[in-house]
Amino acid sequence: MPPALLPQLPLNRSIPNVNMKKPSFLKHSRVLSLVGLQWGVRTSYLLLLLTILYLSLRGSPIMREVWWLPEWLSHWADRYGELRTAVPYCAAGLLCPWLLTRNQARPADRSLPIGHRHLSLSMWAAAFLLALLLLTEGAQLVLPNRVTSLADVGWGTLGIVVGVAASLCLRALAQRRGLVLKSEGL
Q1: Averaged over 91-97, what is the pLDDT?
Q2: Buried b (16+ CB within 10 A) or exposed e, 117-135
Q3: Where are the beta strands (DSSP E) in 13-71?
Q4: What gap in Å lies between CA 78 and CA 88, rounded to an integer?
Q5: Which of 15, 118, 142, 156 is most deeply packed, by most CB within 10 A?
Q6: DSSP state of 183
Q7: Angle, helix 116-139 to helix 86-99, in steps of 10 degrees
Q8: Which residues does 168 contact at the CB level (< 8 Å), separation at least 6?
Q9: How far is residue 30 CA from its own chain's centroid?
């Protein structure tokens, strides 16, 4: 077949069609999924705080007696009694600063890895978790089978610091990748 009879294809096939618009349902489904994600994080955080309160204020420190904990986790928690305080507070510290953000991502327009507002919200989150830790350890003074331990306070504080620091690092990484989560209220 002579070359003149072959159909002529454009050389650059990746030219976008300017007149194409995304269907509106895609935009709304993304917003709804992000809102669902935010409420999922908030619900998970509330359940985590309630779990911390329940496990800290129950009558017995033995985790094997808690029927809904997986067996491997309850054995680990009983074996490492004071270290087990750091784990839930680390998870709470990791989630807490993310609760105070909206899910509307936008391109980063500044070069600072962590804004002062995010750092101040993270410090308030850490202060709240430290107050919860001190409250639960103080309440163990009046519980008959529980003992207040400075080691628990130390491990819990370490968990909070590690969790909040990891959250700030993740936020800085997200900003470097070009996404910034807008802060709510406050």
Answers
A1: 84
A2: ebeebbeebbeebbebbee
A3: none
A4: 15
A5: 156
A6: E
A7: 140
A8: 97, 114, 118, 119, 122
A9: 20
Q: Which residues contact 139 (CB under 8 A, 6 or more apart)?
A: 56, 57
Mean pLDDT of 72-79: 93
pLDDT score of 160: 95
The one-character DSSP state at 105 is E
pLDDT value of residue 132 = 95
Amino acid (1-letter code) at residue 156: G
Summarize the confidence of residues 73-81 as an average pLDDT. 91
Cα–Cα distance, 168 to 117 (Å, whole number): 12
Token output for 15: 């030219």
Helix axes 86-99, 24-57, angle to 10 degrees: 150
Element (H, E) at 181: strand 180-183
Q: pLDDT tens for residues 54-68?
A: 999 998 889 999 999
Q: How far apart are CA 106 and CA 52, in angstroms?
A: 34
| Sequence-separated (6 or more) residues with CB below 8 Å from residue 86 | 155, 156, 158, 159, 162
Half-sphere exposure of residue 144: CA atoms within 13 angstroms, side-chain side = 1
- What span, in angstroms and rounded, lies between the C-alpha atoms of 128 and 111? 29
* Band of pLDDT at residue 16, cut at 50, 70 and 90: low
